[in-house]
Amino acid sequence: MSDDNTPVPAVEPIVAGLKGRCPRCGQGKLFAGFLTVGEECEVCGLDYSFADAADGPAIFVMLIIGFIVVGLALWMEVSINPPLWVHFLLWIPLTLVLCLPALRLIKGVLITLQYANKAQEGRWDRPQ
Ligand SMILES: [Zn+2]
């Protein structure tokens, strides 16, 4: 995050993250692949090397989608009591269909929020 002095219009981090756009200009693409973060913004040149969402997107996806899918599975089991194969047939594909897009959306939001809040790895700041 060394090029932060360039004047650019304010970008809403959550909107930019959900769209997969650059956290500084909101125009360039954040991702080079489905979940791979690009090297830099092709519009404003922001270096994406600061971007490190680590395990954050995965834990949010597991908690949110897990709550939804397990809740639906429990509700179905209690109210309809289907055979076990119906659960497998329904919940495994639904989990995949929900998790993959959510992973990209949440990763984008976490990276843009990381940029907006200037979050970075902790360092010792001792006087020399
Ligand atoms: Zn940009």
The rounded Rg comes to 19 Å
- Beta-strand fraction estimate: under 5%
Helical proportion? 40-55%
Low-confidence stretches: none
Structural class: mainly alpha
What's the number of helices? 3
What is the helix/strand order?
HHH
Q: Ions, cofactors, ligands: which are bound?
A: zinc ion
**Number of individual domains:** 1
**How is the main sheet built?**
none
User: How far apart lie the N and C ends?
Assistant: 24 Å
Rough outline: elongated
Mean residue pLDDT: 90
What's the total number of strands? Answer: 0
Notable characteristics:
mainly alpha, elongated, single chain, binds zinc ion, 128 residues
What do these coordinates show?
This protein is mainly alpha-helical and about 130 residues long. It has one domain. Helix content is about 50%, strand content about 0%. It has helices spanning about 15-20, 55-80, 85-115. Helix 1 (about 15-20) crosses helix 3. It is elongated, with a radius of gyration of 19 Å.
Task: Give a summary of the structure in a few sentences.
The protein has helices spanning 13-19, 56-79, 84-116. It has 128 residues and is mainly α.
